[in-house]
From TrEMBL:
<dbReference type="InterPro" id="IPR026088">
    <property type="entry name" value="Niban-like"/>
</dbReference>
<protein>
    <submittedName>
        <fullName>Uncharacterized protein</fullName>
    </submittedName>
</protein>
<dbReference type="InterPro" id="IPR011993">
    <property type="entry name" value="PH-like_dom_sf"/>
</dbReference>
<dbReference type="Pfam" id="PF26089">
    <property type="entry name" value="PH_Niban2"/>
</dbReference>
<dbReference type="InterPro" id="IPR001849">
    <property type="entry name" value="PH_domain"/>
</dbReference>
Amino acid sequence: MGNIIPLESRKRQEIEDLANSMLETFASEYRTVYGCQVFTSHEESDEYMFPFALKFSPWERLDYPIKKGYLTKQGVIRKTWRRRFFVVQPNYLIDYYENEEAYEKGLKPKGTINPCGYRTVSNLEDELTKRRKKLAAMLGVAHQDSPEKFPKHIFGVVHEKLRSYFIHADSDEEKLEWVEMFRLCCACVKGFNIVDPICQTTFNKAISKTLTAYANPEYHNYRGPEEK
């Protein structure tokens, strides 16, 4: 350690400023490229999950799903309630199809829920009331009850930062079964073994644009680390 020559304070500050500037550029490029990648990679529909679906699983599924059946979920954009056929896969991801026939034909699901980091709450109204009170306290305003009325037998699959799913079953008995199943999925799913091509492509393009902006000819066409 005694052979290391300390940097001058001015030089060290220049390096820190350059690093901070590059990080800001990368963050800006990442946000821009990510939005473009999402809209060019997925068709917009009522079931569209932007910007919540950051991870997608391949359509080739294992056999013998853990559980399947009809549930009704609320859309993310139009907030309409639509009946979907849910299939819990052996890797604890939950696909939902337009109907059972679409699933039996092997069609692409309308969407996939990756429950990593989620919680399943059986009393959704209490959960939302707690969130509204917390937000009101942060903003320093009075809490007001929500006028929204939910269907019977409803439960939630909620996340602190990502999209939350509002789902209702046909009966209290079915609700209890599905709540326990979703809780099992939330506890057992492995969130980091699912490759997300959108984030991978976005990262590589943002790095390339950042390095290009700083005129480093060695990295103009960065394509990510080489696989070992």
